[in-house]
Amino acid sequence: VLPADDGKHYVMVLGGLGYIGSHTTLELLKDGYNVVVVDDLSNCFEEVLNPIRILAEDYCREQGLIMPTLRFHKMDYRSEQMRQLFPRYAAARSCITGVIHFAAFKSVAESIERPLAYYQNNICGLVDLLVTLQENGIKNFVFSSSATVYGAKANEGKPLREDDLVHFDETYIDEMGQECLRINGSKGLTCPYGRSKYFAEAILADLAKADPSMRITALRYFNPVGCHPSGILREDPRQKPTNLFPVIASVMKGKKPQLEVFGSDWETRDGTAIRDFIHVMDLAQGHVAALAAAKANPSRDSFRAYNLGTGNGMTVAEVISSFEKASMQKVPAVLAPRRAGDVGACVAATQRAETELGWTTAKGVDECARDTWNALNMPEDCLA
Ligand code: NAD
Ligand code: WQD
After folding, report:
1. Whose CA is closest to atom 16 on ligand 1?
2. 3-state DSSP assignment of residue 40
3. Gene3D superfamilies under this entry (predicted)?
4. Would the ipTM clear 0.90, i.e. be above it?
5. Residues with CB under 6 A from ligand 2
6. 295 Cα–ligand 1 center, Å
């Protein structure tokens, strides 16, 4: 229940109990932000509030800080209830100073079977949300985008730069000092999920152009993996994940007999595909940095995209070795054909985020594997 004269400033986190949202909520609390989480629990469990609270309270106690306020509203971010939240907070003299939007559907395969459900949640929901934010004068908006927006550009084998995908035609000066035209648009997006992230960014860029007072940040995540080192806050979805780390985790738990390694004939150092695996704690801190940077730099473009990755590509075989090192066990694996729609390598250029957000990653793939393995060994009921 919101006190009648609450009078606090909050960051609102939509989808804040999901994998990345829960780790980000923790980092926001540690940084002193009061947080309002909205989640409909479609891909998470309410119990995740417990480890968030425990870890934030432990941190604040150790650091001699006052624990900020954490509020949770179980609701669809597209609902009328959600629209009513803003006047409710205003009536309590509270202020929502920024919104981080994680709430979306994210399965590539499911998006091909249910494109309209994906567009409804990831696009229609976003547009209506932006109208509500405008009505309530909220300017600072951080959006969960994805390296998937670069599409086939990843096949060119170079680290992906934010300028590889722009939303308006731009001129730029090339290495030879010549003026060139960069044409907006993305090529080789292979699924409705990926397209939903691309369309969402384009909509955000249009809004930012029409309303230059907006501060919209699109964070293009590479491959988020790992979990809090305590193991009590971790990836715990309702939907069965098909990504590499959770699949290895299922194999190590004996829930799946072996890992299928999709493709061993890529042009990489060991033939398996390369990805830029970013520890979710580093990623979470990237959101705190993005929120602060948007506030601190009023002359910034009203729409700005940043890659959140490490800049270091690791192969699937190297990930398996990291798990074997962490667990001192063999990961049963078989070579299988390439998975449809995959690219051989996808690695971030990290300079823009380093320079403009003052943020960089600290953890490598060994720590990602170690923390995932550690969480696997925590009792199932540790969240209760
Ligand atoms: P997640 O499914 O764990 O988290 C999303 C959360 O949003 C869930 O808790 C879900 O219950 C909630 N949600 C979904 N629709 C909702 C709605 N209509 N109303 C309220 N809550 C709703 O996913 P995640 O891995 O934490 O991803 C977060 C965001 O980052 C998503 O937008 C995703 O597309 C994007 N992203 C994820 C990855 C990845 O590999 N995990 C990579 C790039 C981008
Ligand atoms: C990584 C590598 C697989 C499973 C996906 C989405 C992307 C983004 C992040 C949201 C690939 C290989 C995997 C397995 C394997 N999500 N692999 N065996 O495909 O890079 O990105 O998640 O925005 O949009 O496409 O991640 O973890 O699925 O795969 O060999 O059982 O591991 O082929 O080379 P991906 P991933």
Report:
1. 103
2. coil
3. NAD(P)-binding Rossmann-like Domain, UDP-galactose 4-epimerase, domain 1
4. yes
5. 106, 108, 146, 148, 194, 223, 243-244, 247, 259-262, 273, 275, 316, 339, 342
6. 24
